[in-house]
Amino acid sequence: MTTEVDYYELLGIERTADDTTIKSAFRKLAIKYHPDKNGGGKEHEAKFKAINEAYDCLKDPQKRAAYDRFGHAAFQNGGGGGGRQHPGFDAFSDIFESMFGEFAGGGGRQRQARGADLRYDMEISLEDAFHGKETDITIDVSGPCEPCGGTGASPGTMAKTCGTCRGHGKVRAQQGFFMVERPCPTCHGAGQTISDPCKSCRGEGRVDKTVTLAVNVPPGVDDGTRIRLSGQGEAGARGAPPGDLYIFLHVKPHAIFEREGTTLYARAPISFTTAALGGEIEIPGLDGELHTIRVAAGTQSGREVRQRGAGMPVLQGRGQGDLVVRIEVEIPTKLSARQKELLEEFRGLETGDECPVSHGFFDKLKKAVGG
């Protein structure tokens, strides 16, 4: 009587283990008990076969559900996974397919490679980034060949199933213990051959074209924002899916505003009288509105005044950032005789309390140098 070891116990995992845990446990045990690594001993060969059988069952959701309910009886008398020529090969190939890519696999028709993705660089103004814009772009791209409908075969003819790989796009070769799969050298993985290629596209199924595409730039985009136009890249060969077109936005520098995220920064020079006495200045925003900035009396150069909600829109969201105005006090360079007279009179009335920072600085400086 044959003793049937529980699959979960065999792999050393809980019955609630997820797919990642199951695969990880199998990987470790498969490497440990591989016959080539252990001199081909019968004990290790039997162990290797058993863990392959366990993984083959537990990796398949339907087989696992049946095993959880009925145990080994689910696969007896023709049930479940009977009739396999190479028990455990598909299971072990899953590991090597994830490690080496081209090795092993499902044996179905090879999927043709999709067309290449394309990049288009678009320059926009800060105003465009603020309001958004709709525009058209013209690009050179390969598209499906119209005479052959993208098949690559001359009109009235059809591609034939490749006789080398029988339409699978892959061929198998035995290398020691492993069965290796590679792209078919005859059809190059397409699974089909064309005896009479289309003269317009020379059997490629695609030709170069110039197309015009509409692009919608949403409000709030920033420098480096990427817009994806699905299916607008290069056409795939012989009817394979097309790639995508990625539009990278580049926002030109603005004469007035600088941007950090949704915050706009602007420099505002004001007269020294406005800085001393206080007042208001108006700054036109990107939204077309005049924003009144209140300047407090005694404002120093370099002070920042924040205007809430006057910055850039939030991309694909609600609300706006802020406008930050950096004050720069401008000292007059041209004065009339009367203005000079008034300033001289003001200087004569100074006590030092008007500018406590500078007054205190010179007092400290005198003390520091001894008098």
Automatic annotation (TrEMBL):
Which residues take part in binding Zn(2+) 2? 162, 165, 184, 187
A Pfam family assignment? DnaJ_CXXCXGXG
Descriptive protein name: Chaperone protein DnaJ
For this protein's source organism, the top of the classification is: Bacteria, Pseudomonadati, Pseudomonadota, Alphaproteobacteria, Sphingomonadales
SMART domains named in the record: DnaJ (SM00271)
What does the comment on domains in this protein's record state? The J domain is necessary and sufficient to stimulate DnaK ATPase activity. Zinc center 1 plays an important role in the autonomous, DnaK-independent chaperone activity of DnaJ. Zinc center 2 is essential for interaction with DnaK and for DnaJ activity.
InterPro entries from the UniProt entry = DnaJ (IPR012724), DnaJ_C (IPR002939), DnaJ_domain (IPR001623), DnaJ_domain_CS (IPR018253), HSP40/DnaJ_pept-bd (IPR008971), HSP_DnaJ_Cys-rich_dom (IPR001305), HSP_DnaJ_Cys-rich_dom_sf (IPR036410), J_dom_sf (IPR036869)
J domain span: 6-71
GO MF annotations in UniProt = ATP binding; heat shock protein binding; unfolded protein binding; zinc ion binding
Instruction: Report the co-factor binding details.
Output: Binds 2 Zn(2+) ions per monomer.
User: Does Cytoplasm count among this protein's keywords?
Assistant: yes
Q: What family is it from?
A: Belongs to the DnaJ family.
What functional role does this protein have? Participates actively in the response to hyperosmotic and heat shock by preventing the aggregation of stress-denatured proteins and by disaggregating proteins, also in an autonomous, DnaK-independent fashion. Unfolded proteins bind initially to DnaJ; upon interaction with the DnaJ-bound protein, DnaK hydrolyzes its bound ATP, resulting in the formation of a stable complex. GrpE releases ADP from DnaK; ATP binding to DnaK triggers the release of the substrate protein, thus completing the reaction cycle.
In which ranges do the CXXCXGXG motif repeats occur?
A: 145-152, 162-169, 184-191, 198-205
Q: Where are the zinc fingers (CR-type)?
A: 132-210
Q: Provide the assembly information.
A: Homodimer.
Domain annotation CR-type: ranges: 132-210
**What cofactor does this chain's UniProt record say it requires?**
Zn(2+)
- Keywords in UniProt for this one? Chaperone, Cytoplasm, DNA replication, Metal-binding, Repeat, Stress response, Zinc, Zinc-finger
Biological process terms in GO annotation: DNA replication; protein refolding; response to heat
Binding positions for Zn(2+) 1? 145, 148, 198, 201
Localisation per UniProt entry:
Cytoplasm
Q: What gene name is given for the protein in this entry?
A: dnaJ
Q: Does the keyword Metal-binding apply?
A: yes
GO-annotated cellular components: cytoplasm
